Structure formats: structure tokens, C-alpha cells
Automatic annotation (TrEMBL):
<feature type="region of interest" description="Disordered">
    <location>
        <begin position="1"/>
        <end position="23"/>
    </location>
</feature>
<keyword id="KW-0963">Cytoplasm</keyword>
<dbReference type="InterPro" id="IPR009069">
    <property type="entry name" value="Cys_alpha_HP_mot_SF"/>
</dbReference>
<feature type="domain" description="CHCH">
    <location>
        <begin position="29"/>
        <end position="63"/>
    </location>
</feature>
<protein>
    <recommendedName>
        <fullName>Cytochrome c oxidase assembly protein COX19</fullName>
    </recommendedName>
</protein>
<feature type="compositionally biased region" description="Polar residues">
    <location>
        <begin position="1"/>
        <end position="12"/>
    </location>
</feature>
<comment type="similarity">
    <text>Belongs to the COX19 family.</text>
</comment>
<dbReference type="InterPro" id="IPR010625">
    <property type="entry name" value="CHCH"/>
</dbReference>
<dbReference type="GO" id="GO:0033617">
    <property type="term" value="P:mitochondrial respiratory chain complex IV assembly"/>
</dbReference>
<keyword id="KW-1015">Disulfide bond</keyword>
<dbReference type="InterPro" id="IPR051383">
    <property type="entry name" value="COX19"/>
</dbReference>
<dbReference type="GO" id="GO:0005758">
    <property type="term" value="C:mitochondrial intermembrane space"/>
</dbReference>
<dbReference type="Pfam" id="PF06747">
    <property type="entry name" value="CHCH"/>
</dbReference>
Amino acid sequence: MSSMTFGQKTFTPTPPEKGSFPLDHEGRCKSSMLRYMICLQEKNNDNSQCRKEAKDYLNCRMENYLMAKEEWSKLGFSEVDVNAEESNKK
């Protein structure tokens, strides 16, 4: 039996603006995701202690077009976090 019945409109799903993003089928960000997951496990799921790993993972996703590029402040990272990390790289 077909799913189309007389007069029924077809449903076209639309993705949400936030909260859902493409899966990393090619594993481009797998290593940064694993570092983040290991950090969470070691820190008893205290994500505040894994902010660097979380930022690295999100950055990888943005660089590989697996999510839209966003300002760090919109992703929960303050300017202090961003500036501190940049000064540590120098």
C-alpha cells in the first residue's frame, strides 16, 4: 500500500537552525572528538574542565563545514577564553 493517499500533502522536513548538525561520516574531527570525550571521562563529566578540548572540536567542525561558523561568544566561550588561548599559542 502506498504512503500517499488521495488529497494528502507531502511532508517536507526542514532541519532546525540550531541544535542539530551533520554527522562526521568521514571522521575528519574524530580525533578532537575523542580527546574531548576522554577528557570528560577523566574529569567525571565536568565539562568546565574540558573547555579547550570542546573548543578544538567545535573549531574542527566549523573548519570542515560540518557546522556553521559562529562567534565563540555564541557558543559559550567568552572573549577571556579566546584571548587566553591565543596568548598561550604565542
